[in-house]
């Protein structure tokens, strides 16, 4: 008798979550409100049952998030009794950081990468759980489950600790930390299949409906309060959904009729395009994700 | 979430007719042997790569394949690797077919990456060994086969690649098969399966080739889809405790992942190393209580009696226990730039269990190119050797050949925190010495265990957030003759010196993990029940620990 593959990777993720709680003095779960974070949070609830999740959630708020994300964040975390912390790079926001004048690469550097590193330092967390998966992007394929960060929050891809069996080395000195990725071995398909299996609640943006969008360079950008129109642009009503969530100006929607999880899974079989394709930042420069990750991006 | 009234059926977790199982396999190879091309092709032909990723490869300036599409570009991850055309670390890839989901540990092949190969092999069920049909069985294939078998892989798929360059010659294939079979005595009984293929043209990778009419075996993908892996649930029950879950006074459960075997409510179990016995009262999950659970499920066990169980303990079936030992021989792969120092105290991590250990001798080193045993004084990066290890505290484990979970360990440097070596228990050289709490080495530098004996208590790190309580506890412990210190910095070395430290800073992973200080009497009681200090009355009778 064998476990189904979803139950195998579920058991592995729970093991990793428990190791994190046991090995670190002050862990945190980086909660981005997206589907991967939602799966991670669900697994954390399972790992410590009947106790509550024993560490707080930290949301890095760029202030460019979709309002539906914030609504969902606040109501869901309250419902499950989780402790929610929100951190924003206020200094950069006060300086007017935005993707239009800085470019997406610099903007992301300030509002996400730097905010994560600063936020973790601010609260003194020694481990940060994230929902990143190795199948998302080439440089992630080599990242450890327990991934060491030096005092500046930097990752050194060429000098990673060997990681064998399911024995994870989380020993750090003061100021150093570990990023922990319990979903390392999950694929996008696994995430959706598990969301369906476990009936995990998600931000409505993932499901198709008629939305006002801008068509920009082949990408659909939903109209939100702080999306700026470029000269000559006009919003259209298109039935679409988000395949991955980011900031309003930088994550695109795709044309879709999938308004349920099972329809999304059906679409995945047909649709052979990786989810990050609609993210503007990954294409800025060759190897751009690896650069961001070395600096601390999740 | 369900309540405990109606037990959840095990089929909630097991594979139904329409569901896939998981297979992990490793590959190893270097620049020219077509490994990246092979994996790239598997990804593309099983739709494990997305169209936009394939388009990016098509648009790339680099194409070393001489064919329309350079499949190898799909899997070359880090910038440095793309520039140098080599794979320098373990990368994990994913694809699936209707039968199975596959996790591929893709590792480099050169000798300097032996440790990466061992890492990739540690979790794999199958190894795909690449051989260039033009070159035959080279040192690299021998190394990969040896390491795969050493790390416990039971099935080797020997992919004889580049058959297109030898005109799909049956005699070339047979010569290579014969040569490889001669290595078999060194491969720990692993099953050998030979497949002639061309990764570049796709012959016998996914689809059967018409160019090998003399070959009637499966294609590589067919082999991977059908190879039968003995389920971990069929082995002896082993449950390493990761965490004690105690949300309120009415619930005390032990959380962990079943490493091997199965467990049922009512089973008689033994806790190691204490050897206390009790029964399984409940098997708790978020989805509901179970009557039975199998490896590799993550569950929480509730025991019938109030026995002392903590992180690192092992729960097993009574009558089918692991060995408890402090001396054993192990095969090790040295992974760090700093060489092995004989007699130096390292930390040995064994699942969630951690003890202090030292390597007391090197029996021999193995030359993985020709499988010869060589004498060795020390070990350097990428060396594989049989060593003898002594631990300061008892270790509960199995031989690696009988259990890949409880037979495996890593060695850490307590100062740099680096992972130094991976080890596999090969022989228990002395069973538990009974009849005394005295733990000490025979010679060499003074160890923690010896300090514990001398001080009459164990070290502990007590975390407090109340200065007055900390001062009071320090006084109470001092009056009992304890080596105690208040300190607001993290100085883990004090634990190695045998101290009990009361600190506002927290520490992880030491002999007796952090105790939270809320109330002085309660903290003293907890230190007693955890065996850190002796109960007062016993000490008054002069028995000590």
Short description:
The complex is a heterodimer of chains A (298) and B (545). Chain A is built from 9 helices and 10 strands.
Q: Averaged pLDDT of chain A, please?
A: 86
Task: Say what the CATH topology of the largest domain in chain A is.
Answer: Rossmann fold
Largest sheet of chain B: 7 strands, antiparallel
Number of domains of chain B: 4
The count of β-strands of chain A is 10
What is the share of helical residues of chain A?
Answer: 25-40%
- What's the CATH topology name of the largest domain in chain B? Rossmann fold
Radius of gyration of chain A: 19 Å
User: What sort of overall outline of chain A do the alpha carbons produce when their principal axes are compared?
Assistant: globular
Bin the strand percentage of chain B. 25-35%
Provide the domain count of chain A: 2
Strand order in the sheet with the most strands of chain B: 7-15-11-12-14-9-8
Q: Spans of chain B of 5+ residues with little confidence (pLDDT < 50)? A: 433-440, 537-545
**N-end to C-end Cα span of chain A:** 37 Å
Strand content of chain A: 15-25%
CATH superfamily of the largest domain in chain A: HUPs
Q: Percentage of helical residues of chain B?
A: 10-25%
Number of helices of chain B: 12
CATH fourth-tier homologous superfamily of the largest domain in chain B:
P-loop containing nucleotide triphosphate hydrolases
């Amino acid at each position: 008798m064998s476990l189904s593959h979803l139950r195998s990777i579920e058991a592995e993720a729970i093991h990793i979550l428990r190791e994190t709680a046991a090995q670190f003095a002050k862990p945190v779960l980086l909660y981005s409100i997206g589907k991967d974070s939602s799966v991670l949070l669900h697994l954390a609830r399972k790992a410590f049952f009947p106790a509550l999740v024993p560490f707080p959630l930290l949301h890095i708020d760029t202030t460019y998030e979709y309002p539906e994300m914030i609504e969902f964040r606040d109501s869901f975390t309250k419902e499950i009794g989780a402790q929610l912390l929100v951190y924003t790079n206020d200094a950069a926001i006060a300086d007017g950081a935005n993707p239009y004048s800085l470019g997406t690469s610099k903007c992301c550097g300030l509002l996400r990468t730097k905010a994560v590193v600063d936020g973790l330092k601010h609260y003194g967390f020694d481990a940060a759980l994230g929902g990143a998966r190795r199948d998302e992007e080439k440089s992630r394929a080599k990242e450890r489950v327990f991934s060491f960060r030096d005092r500046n929050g930097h990752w050194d891809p060429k000098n990673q600790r060997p990681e064998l069996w399911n024995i994870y080395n989380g020993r750090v000195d003061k100021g150093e930390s570990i990023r922990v990725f319990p979903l390392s071995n999950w694929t996008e398909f696994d995430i959706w299949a598990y969301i369906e299996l476990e009936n995990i609640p998600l931000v409505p943006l993932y499901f198709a409906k008629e939305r006002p969008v801008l068509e920009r360079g082949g990408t659909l950008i939903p109209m939100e309060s702080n999306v700026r129109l470029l000269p000559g642009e006009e919003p259209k009503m298109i039935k679409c959904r988000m395949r991955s969530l980011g900031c309003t100006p930088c994550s695109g929607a795709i044309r879709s009729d999938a308004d349920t999880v099972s329809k999304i899974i059906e679409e995945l079989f047909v649709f052979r395009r990786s989810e990050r394709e609609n993210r503007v930042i990954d294409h800025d420069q060759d190897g751009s994700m690896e650069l961001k990750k070395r600096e601390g991006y999740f | 979430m369900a309540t405990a009234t109606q037990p959840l059926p095990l089929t909630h977790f097991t594979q139904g007719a329409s569901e896939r199982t998981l297979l992990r396999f490793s590959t190893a190879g270097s620049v020219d042997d077509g490994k990246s091309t092979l994996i790239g092709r598997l990804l593309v032909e099983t739709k494990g790569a997305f169209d936009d990723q394939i388009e990016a490869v098509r648009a790339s300036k680099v194409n070393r394949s001489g064919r329309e599409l350079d499949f190898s570009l799909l899997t070359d991850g880090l910038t440095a690797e793309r520039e140098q055309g080599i794979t320098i670390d373990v990368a994990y890839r994913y694809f699936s077919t209707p039968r199975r989901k596959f996790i591929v540990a893709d590792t480099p092949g050169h000798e300097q990456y032996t440790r990466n190969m061992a890492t990739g092999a540690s979790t794999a069920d199958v190894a795909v060994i690449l051989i260039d049909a033009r070159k035959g069985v080279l040192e690299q294939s021998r190394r990969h086969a040896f390491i795969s078998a050493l790390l416990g892989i039971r099935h080797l798929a020997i992919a004889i690649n580049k058959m297109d360059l030898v005109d799909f010659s049956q005699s070339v294939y047979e010569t290579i098969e014969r040569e490889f079979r001669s290595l078999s005595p060194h491969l720990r009984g692993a099953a050998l399966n030979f497949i002639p293929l061309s990764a570049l043209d796709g012959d016998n990778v996914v689809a059967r080739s018409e160019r090998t009419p003399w070959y009637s075996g499966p294609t590589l993908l067919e082999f991977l889809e059908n190879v039968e892996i003995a389920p971990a649930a069929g082995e002896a029950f082993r449950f390493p405790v990761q965490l004690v879950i105690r949300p309120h006074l009415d619930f005390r459960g032990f959380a962990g992942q079943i490493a091997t075997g199965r467990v049922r409510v009512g089973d008689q179990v033994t806790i190691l190393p204490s050897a206390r016995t009790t029964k399984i009262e409940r098997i708790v999950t978020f989805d509901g209580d179970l009557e039975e659970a199998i490896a590799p499920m993550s569950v929480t066990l509730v025991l019938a009696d109030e026995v002392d169980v903590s992180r690192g303990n092992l729960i097993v079936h009574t009558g089918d226990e692991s060995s408890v030992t402090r001396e054993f021989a192990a095969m090790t792969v040295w992974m760090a730039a700093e060489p092995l120092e004989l007699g130096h105290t390292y930390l040995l991590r064994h699942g969630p269990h951690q003890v202090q250990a030292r390597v007391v001798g090197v029996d021999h080193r193995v030359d993985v190119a020709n499988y010869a045993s060589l004498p060795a004084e020390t070990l350097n990066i990428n060396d594989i050797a049989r060593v003898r290890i002594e631990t300061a505290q008892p270790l509960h484990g199995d031989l690696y050949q009988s259990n890949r979970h409880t037979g495996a360990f890593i060695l850490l440097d307590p100062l740099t925190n680096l992972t130094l070596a991976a080890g596999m228990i090969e022989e228990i050289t002395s069973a538990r010495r009974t009849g005394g709490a005295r733990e000490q080495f025979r010679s060499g530098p003074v160890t923690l265990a010896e300090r514990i004996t001398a001080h009459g208590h164990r070290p502990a790190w007590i975390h407090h957030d109340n200065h007055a309580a900390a001062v009071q506890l320090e006084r109470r412990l001092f009056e009992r003759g304890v080596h105690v210190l208040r300190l607001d910095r993290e100085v883990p070395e004090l634990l190695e010196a045998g101290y009990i430290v009361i600190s506002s800073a927290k520490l992880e992973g030491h002999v007796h993990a952090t105790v939270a200080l809320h109330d002085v009497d309660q903290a003293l009681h907890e230190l007693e029940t955890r065996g850190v200090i002796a109960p007062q009355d016993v000490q008054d009778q002069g028995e000590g620990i």
